[in-house]
Amino acid sequence: xxxxxxxxxxxxxxxxxxxxxxxxxxxxxxxxxxxxxxxxxxxxxxxxxxxxxxxxxxxxxxxxxxxxxxxxxxxxxxxxxxxxxxxxxxxxxxxxxxxxxxxxx
Length: 105
Hints:
By secondary structure, this protein is an alpha+beta fold. Helix content is 25%, strand content 10%. It has three helices and four strands, in the order ββααββα. Strands 1-2 form a two-stranded antiparallel sheet. Strands 3-4 form a two-stranded parallel sheet. The radius of gyration is 15 Å and the shape is globular. The chain starts with a strand and ends in a 17-residue tail after the last helix. Mean pLDDT is 78; it is low at 95-105.
């Protein structure tokens, strides 16, 4: 079983999804739990790995930021490589489930 948790920049819990079977892909769980709507409502964005590519296709106001993907026929530019390195080295808030207050949704 796994779940998706949204936290703010300090690691405080904003929303937690229902538990789903471990075989459920993260992007499927994010769609079922309307994560984009919750992020937009909270005025937040999220850094995500390449497994979330295609979740947020709003190019004018993206909420989910993923890295660039290379393929055999599409090599990354130096700028895209730099962006991937910057995104992967961005600090992430600490996970503090023990200090989370109960919340209701």
